[in-house]
Amino acid sequence: MPATAASSLPDRWPLASVLVVDDEPGMRNFLVKTLTPRAGQVHAAGSAEEAGEQLQRHRYDLVILDITLPGRNGIELLKDLREQGNPCEVVLITAFADLDTAIEALRAGASDFLLKPFRVTQVLNAFRRGLERARLQRENWVLRRSLSQRTPAGDGLVGHSIVVRGLQAALARVAAVDSTVLLTGESGTGKELAALALHRRSGFADGPFVPVNCATVSPAALEAELFGVAHGPERRDGLFVYAQGGTLFLDEVGELPLPLQATLLRVLESRRVRPLGGELEVPVELRIVAASNRPLRGAVEAGRFRDDLYWRLQVVEITLPPLRAHKEDIPELVTHFVQQLAPTLGVPPIAVTADEMRYLQQYDWPGNVRELRNLIERSLIVGALNVSALYQSLGRVDRAAVAAPAPARLDTPTDLHTLEKRHILAVLGSVEGDKSRAAQLLGISRRTLERRLAEWHEPGTNEARVRPE
Q1: How do residues 356-378 score in pLDDT, each as one tens digit?
Q2: What residues does each domain of the chain span?
Q3: Span 3-136: which CATH code?
Q4: Does 456 score more than 80 pLDDT?
Q5: Distance between CA atoms of 313 and 308, rounded to whole angstroms?
Q6: Rg (CA), the chain
């Protein structure tokens, strides 16, 4: 990297930890003195053996390593680090370099190479480049993880109802401070989207947004996932470290086992993380946003959640409204999901009629905005509003709760039952009566389709009609 590019990087990295390994006291002291004002921690070692002990006890972002050391040389130590899975950046330095040595260093996993004697600017540029590479690796890891978990791409909270405007105002106020936030609300109300909105409006917006669902990771793996592993082939940083300078979103925090709740409480209070099997507590600077789809107060009273952790998380609590509380936003949400999903799926957008939209606004949406999004995604695949999928959900709620629509023309369906019937028969007709294909397009089982057709037999006939009325 050119010097001009390196000099454009930050001069101070207050959360970074650096190890200097050199057997010459003068060079070791010079490097420590140069880097100490620019890093959070700078440690020193005079041999590969001493450095190995330090690396077993501490986590380092960057190691500046002399090749020529008493006993084992620097390249041997570097190879050990890579075999152990240690991801730290390594800058090798030497006074006796040739092409073969440089090639061996790069093959061993060095990220930079300095030839003695060097100037202060050369050291600082290597220091900045190494820490910038470490930061980019963390960001790339977070990005890959986010893509695999379908993290929302934007932070837009869709809707202009009084309820949504109130939520947006609350998030804007809270984003201006660094306090821990607890988001509550039913499943599917958009708690991760709200957490992302908080992140992107806060002072941590330049850092990563790292979500983790505490309910989907086994208790045995969750501690290593959050806090990292200090030693062995499984050695890695935890999500707290990957979220440095950004936001860590702990979804379904109420599912944390009690021992892990105690560990999380210590981290929240001290802002320091100790990897499994390690001695060093790594300082972390980030925002914590937690979420739960059930009231944590009830879990506290039942003894399933620590009272002190609850109060530590609930510095600010924001409750997200269910979709049934702001049904007037459904048309805007439908338009948003069609525009968002159609290009992703590679299908043309669908048109939703005013009558169909009215039916969507009659439904109580037990799965909230997530259920509406899934309906639109399935409808885009089918090519028309897939009301049968919606009708199936009525088995989980009181069908009488679906209010009658406003008066309509005589040729307009007047309830969800009729609308579902017309939709199923239209899809079945479009595939020339192929029930297996129709069931696949409708997102229901063939058995369910056949049961529906049996319910619609004309009096005195044994065949269900396969054409819409």
Answers
A1: 888 888 888 988 999 999 899 88
A2: 3-136, 149-321, 324-455
A3: 3.40.50.2300
A4: no
A5: 9
A6: 29
Give the type of residue at 266: R
The overall pTM is greater than 0.90: no
Residues in the chain: 469
Return the CATH number of 324-455, one of 1.10.8.100, 3.40.50.2300, 1.10.3720.10, 1.10.8.60. 1.10.8.60
Amino acid at 180: T
Return the amino acid letter for 213.
N
Q: Give yes or no for a contact between 41 and 280, defined as CB atoms under 8 angstroms apart.
A: no
Q: Which two tokens stand for residue 17?
A: 């930890």
Task: Please say if the pLDDT value at position 63 is more than 90.
Answer: yes
149-321 architecture in CATH?
3-Layer(aba) Sandwich (3.40)
Dihedral sign for Cα atoms in the order 106, 107, 110, 116: negative
User: What is the distance between the alpha carbons of residues 103 and 100, in angstroms, rounded to a whole number?
Assistant: 5
Half-sphere exposure of 334 (CA within 13 A, CB side): 23
26-35, 64-73, 340-349, 440-449: range with lowest mean pLDDT: 440-449
H-helix segments, 348-463? 354-362, 368-382, 387-393, 416-430, 435-442, 446-455
pLDDT digits (tens, 9 = 90+) for 74-104: 888 888 888 777 788 899 988 876 677 777 7
Q: What is the pLDDT confidence band of residue 229, given thresholds at 50, 70 and 90? A: confident
Kindly list the distances between the CA atom of residue 393 and the CA atoms of 109, 362, 372, 389, 444, in Å, as whole numbers in the listed order: 55, 13, 11, 7, 11
Residue of 240, 179, 235 whose CA lies nearest to 212? 240
d(CA 408, CA 427) in angstroms, rounded, equals 24
Is-same-fold flag (3-136; 149-321)?
Answer: yes
